[in-house]
C-alpha cells in the first residue's frame, strides 16, 4: 500500500542505492574508500568523501548498514578504518528498489537526439 | 626540496606528506566524532598516494576539492542533527540578510533622495521605507525558512525571539546611527516596528520552508 509507513521506510535515495549496491559488489563488507572507488568506477560519478560518510552515517541510523572500527596505519595518519557491513534491512531495501527499477526499465528504449536506441 | 619525483624514486625514505592543516581542521570541526577519523584517514591515505604518484600540487588540489565538495553535506548534517547550532546560524543568517538588505536599500534610498526624486513628498518617503523594510523582513524570513526547513516547527519561536533580540541590538543608538545614518529610534518604536514586520517575516519563513 502506498500509505503504509513500512513501505515508505524501504525507499532508498539514489546515493543510498549506489552505496548498498557497491557494498554488495564488495562482498557485503567494505570501508569507505573502497565504496567510493567502486561507485566512481562503475557509476562514473565523482563522490565527495564527506557526502559518502554523511550518507553512511544516516544509513547506519536507519539500520541499513552497521560499522565497526578496523586497523589504523601510519599512512592514514594513525587513524582507524571504519568497515561497513550491509544489514538484512539494507539487503531488503536494495532488493525492493532494484525490483522497482527493473520493472520500470524493462523493455525501455531510450532514443538519443538522432533517434537511435541505446 | 621534496618533489614528486623524489617521492616516486624512494617512497619509504621520503618525509611523510601531510594534507593542508587548515583543511584538516575545517573538516574535523564539521565532521562528527562517529566518522571523523575514518573520513580523515581515507582522505590522508588518498592524499599520500596522490602525492607519491602525481606530486604535491595535485595532491593538495585534490584534498582542497574534496574539502569544498564535502562541506555542503557536512554542514547540512550539522544543521539537521544539532538544533541549537541550527537556531544560532539561522538567526545570524536571517539578521545578516536583514541588515545587508536594509542597509543597501536605505543607502540607495538616500541617494535617490539626494537627487530630489523623493523630496517634497514625505508620504512617498515613508511608504518607500515601509516597503523596503517589509521586503527586508520577508527576505530574512525566507533565509530562515530555507535553512531550517527540516527542523521542527517549535524552533520557529526561537528564530523569531533570536531575531528580535538582534533587531533590538541592531537598533541601539550608536549602531543604528552607523548603519542608517538616521536619528536612533526609541525602544517602544523599535518593538512596535518589529511587531509590524512580523507577518512579513513569518510569511517569508513559511515560503522558505516550503520551497
Structure report:
The complex is a heterodimer of chains A (118) and B (211). Chain A is α+β, with helices and mostly antiparallel strands and 118 residues long. In chain A, 51% of the residues lie in helices and 15% in strands. Chain A contains five helices and three strands; from the N terminus they run ααβααββα. In chain A, strand 2 and strand 3 form a beta hairpin. The termini of chain A are far apart. The model of chain A has no long low-confidence stretch (mean pLDDT 86). Chain B has 211 residues and is mainly alpha-helical. Chain B has two domains: 4-79; 82-210, no CATH class. The longest helix of chain B is centred in the middle third of the chain and has 32 residues, at 83-114. Chain A binds chain B through residues 31-33, 36, 46, 48-51, 53-58, 69, 72-77, 79-82, and chain B through 16, 18, 27, 30-32, 34-35, 37-46, 48, 66-67, 69-74, 76-77.
Give a quick precis of the structure.
Helix content of chain A is 51%, strand content 15%. Chain A is an alpha+beta fold. Chain A has a single domain (13-105), classed as Winged helix-like DNA-binding domain superfamily/Winged helix DNA-binding domain (Arc Repressor Mutant, subunit A, Orthogonal Bundle), CATH 1.10.10.
The main β sheet of chain B shows up as: none
Task: Tell me the series of helices and strands of chain A, N- to C-terminal.
Answer: HHEHHEEH
- Large-scale geometry of chain B: elongated
What is the general shape of chain A? Answer: globular
| Structural class determined from secondary elements of chain B | mainly alpha
| Strand arrangement, major sheet of chain A | 1-3-2
Number of helices of chain A: 5
Mean of residue pLDDT of chain B?
74
- The overall number of domains of chain A is 1
Largest interface summary: A-B, 26 and 29 residues
Number of E-type strands of chain A: 3
SS class of chain A = alpha+beta
The total number of structural domains of chain B is 2
- Please identify, by name, the CATH architecture of chain A: Orthogonal Bundle
Using only C-alpha atoms, the radius of gyration of chain A works out to: 17 Å
Binned, the helix content of chain B reads: over 70%
Helical percent range of chain A? Answer: 40-55%
Uncertain runs of chain B:
1-10, 118-124
- Quaternary state of this entry equals heterodimer
The amount of beta strand of chain B, in percent, is under 5%
